[in-house]
């Protein structure tokens, strides 16, 4: 996305802005009922350039991720990835734990498995996992071990924290697959994942299946067959759904005109964009903007 939208229309806050005095790539923060000094940031639409995991012990605030409303609940675990757009309705504090880390942290680990876990790649653009009692107990146990390690001054402290985090990410990824999509990890699924990653990188510029097939060095026919078999949706449907997600973000969180959104998403004609959007949402972009903002208000 162009800088005008990503960094100015919907601002993106960096890890360093949020944690200026801590570790530059990894933070474990206890929320004890106070609201942070960044309160004003959370009350306006924004993105974050880092990953966040949150275990809520007490709290009942409402917040939006993209165009989905979530009610904070102690029986849930929350996670977010860098591309998502957040906004809180109220600056209400909660009791719990936030675990935040950057892409650089993942890259330093040099662990392909870690970087490709579902809780990290978030292929379903999720934000919430429902917890059973056993899930909550296990997650709480790992986090308590991390807190204990954080407050001690022992050798290999960071290595221990990273090891605990790895275990937590694996456990959360298992819950993710159970609750979103339990898909066999085979070569065809790896192709699907690579395809969806390419869409996230290029959807503003590339709207045709053939363009992605070229990037993957396969035929468009083979890509279509594999993606349809693995996901139940055609490649063009994946591309279009990604465009619709971003369109909804811009309609909800910005004051860009329909013509400007048309341009930002790579469409040449706003009349075509209107027809395209209505085919998915059964309403025009203007009607969607009005309806979603009425819900938010």
Explain this structure.
By secondary structure, the chain is α+β, with helices and mostly antiparallel strands. The chain has 15 helices and ten strands. The protein has a five-stranded antiparallel sheet with strand order 2-9-4-7-10. It has a three-stranded antiparallel sheet with strand order 6-5-8, with no helix packed on it.
Helices, by number, come to: 15
Beta content:
15-25%
Number of strands: 10
Shape: globular
Order of helices and strands: HEHEHEEEEEEEHHHEHHHHHHHHH
Distance between the termini: 28 Å
Characterize this entry briefly.
This protein is of the alpha+beta class and 297 residues long. The protein has helices at residues 3-9, 15-18, 39-42, 103-109, 112-115, 118-121, 133-150, 157-179, 187-202, 209-216, 220-231, 235-253, 258-264, 270-281, 285-296; strands spanning 12-13, 26-32, 47-48, 50-58, 62-65, 68-71, 76-80, 86-88, 95-102, 128-130.
Q: What key phrases describe this protein's structure?
A:
five-stranded antiparallel β-sheet, 10 strands
Topology at a glance:
Layout: H1 3-9, E1 12-13, H2 15-18, E2 26-32, H3 39-42, E3 47-48, E4 50-58, E5 62-65, E6 68-71, E7 76-80, E8 86-88, E9 95-102, H4 103-109, H5 112-115, H6 118-121, E10 128-130, H7 133-150, H8 157-179, H9 187-202, H10 209-216, H11 220-231, H12 235-253, H13 258-264, H14 270-281, H15 285-296
Parallel strand pairs: 1-3
Antiparallel strand pairs: 2-9, 4-7, 4-9, 5-6, 5-8, 7-10
């Amino acid at each position: 996305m162009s800088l005008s939208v990503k960094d100015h229309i919907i601002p993106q806050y960096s890890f360093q802005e949020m944690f200026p005095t801590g570790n530059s790539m990894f933070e474990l923060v206890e929320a004890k009922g106070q609201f942070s000094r960044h309160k004003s940031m959370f009350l306006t639409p924004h993105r974050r350039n880092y990953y966040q995991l949150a275990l809520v012990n007490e709290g009942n605030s409402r917040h939006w991720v993209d165009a989905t409303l979530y009610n904070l609940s102690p029986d849930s675990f929350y996670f977010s990835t860098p591309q998502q757009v957040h906004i809180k309705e109220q600056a209400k504090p909660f009791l719990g734990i936030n675990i935040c880390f950057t892409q650089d942290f993942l890259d330093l680990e040099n662990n392909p498995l870690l970087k490709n876990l579902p809780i990290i790649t978030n292929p379903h653009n999720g934000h919430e996992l429902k917890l059973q009692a056993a899930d909550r107990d296990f997650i709480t146990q790992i986090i308590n071990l991390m807190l204990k390690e954080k407050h001690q001054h022992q050798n290999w402290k960071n290595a221990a924290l990273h090891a605990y985090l790895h275990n937590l990410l694996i456990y959360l990824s298992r819950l993710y697959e159970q609750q979103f999509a339990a898909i066999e990890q085979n070569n065809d699924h790896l192709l699907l994942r690579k395809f969806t990653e390419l869409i996230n990188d290029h959807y503003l510029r590339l709207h045709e299946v053939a363009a992605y097939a070229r990037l993957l060095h396969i035929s468009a026919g083979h890509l279509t067959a594999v993606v349809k078999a693995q996901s139940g949706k055609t490649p063009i449907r994946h591309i279009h759904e990604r465009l619709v997600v971003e369109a909804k973000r811009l309609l909800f969180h910005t004051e860009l005109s329909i013509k400007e959104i048309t341009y930002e998403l790579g469409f040449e004609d706003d009349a075509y964009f209107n027809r395209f959007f209505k085919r998915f949402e059964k309403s025009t972009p203007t009607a969607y903007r009005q309806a979603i903002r009425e819900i938010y208000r």
